[in-house]
Design brief:
single chain; alpha/beta; binds D-glutamic acid; 9 strands; globular; 4-stranded parallel β-sheet; 5-stranded parallel β-sheet; Rossmann fold
Length: 235
């Protein structure tokens, strides 16, 4: 099953399954290797050096399997490492996942809340996304959610609700129009987030990532016409 036709997908655990689900919808005939790096979860509190080492090891694994494209199904790894990974592995096509700040800004929302890991929030990429997309009348609140991805990975409902309550209660009076889910793990707690901010639209970039993968495969003439297998590799 491991051959040139595989697409490699990775995240620090279950978060990237939200991207994989969309990939299977948009590209059902592809074969996927999902690298579930739970051992190193959470990525979001690691240093840049640690993240580069972890992600380089994973991409080296995919490189040895001759994958045709790597999807970084993780905002933290994308915002911190994708540029260096592209330099280190020039023969691999990469598609990353970044907080969908542009989508929220283009919708014309006035008050936008971006939830992501501490590493993503402090990244230059998020800074650029804000500078390039924010309009004069828009407020963008950048909120690091320390510990949330790990709590979701552990399915610790009490901790998830405690963290969300500490964070989201601060935004109840801010007329938040949209919440950008800037961490792939957060897609699994959409209902819980909506309980705190019922009027806000939740924006999840996973469909955009899947469509971008399709475009890249079309451009490079590498689309598969049969497959649909998913293989999970645990760290
Ligand atoms: N799911 C990842 C993201 O999108 C990483 C979460 C973590 O491990 O901290 O940022």
């Amino acid at each position: 099953m491991i051959n040139m036709n595989n697409i490699g997908v990775f995240d620090s655990g279950i978060g990237g399954f939200s991207i994989l689900e969309k990939l299977l919808e948009v590209l059902p005939d592809e074969n996927y290797i999902y690298y579930k790096d739970s051992k190193n979860c959470p990525y979001g509190s690691k240093s840049d050096e640690e993240l580069l080492k972890i992600t380089t090891d994973i991409v080296s694994y995919f490189d040895k399997k001759n994958v045709k494209l790597v999807v970084i199904a993780c905002n933290t790894a994308t915002t911190k490492c994708i540029r260096k990974l592209r330099e280190l592995f020039p023969n691999i096509i990469f598609v990353g996942t970044e907080p969908a700040i542009k989508v929220a800004c283009d919708r014309g929302d006035k008050n936008i809340l971006v939830l992501a890991t501490p590493a993503t929030i402090s990244s230059d990429s998020v800074d650029k996304l804000v500078k390039n997309n924010q309009k004069d009348d828009q407020n963008i609140f950048l909120q690091a959610c320390d510990g949330l991805a790990r709590a979701i990975e552990d399915k610790d409902d009490k901790l998830i609700n405690g963290i969300l309550s500490d964070i989201l209660n601060n935004y109840k009076d801010k007329n938040i129009d949209s919440v950008v889910l800037g961490c792939t793990h957060y897609s699994f707690v959409k209902d819980e987030i909506s309980n705190f901010l019922p009027g806000a639209e939740l924006i999840d970039g996973s469909l955009g990532v899947a469509r971008q993968v399709k475009r890249k495969l079309e451009e490079s003439n590498k689309l598969s016409s049969n497959g649909g297998f998913v293989q999970i590799k645990n760290s």
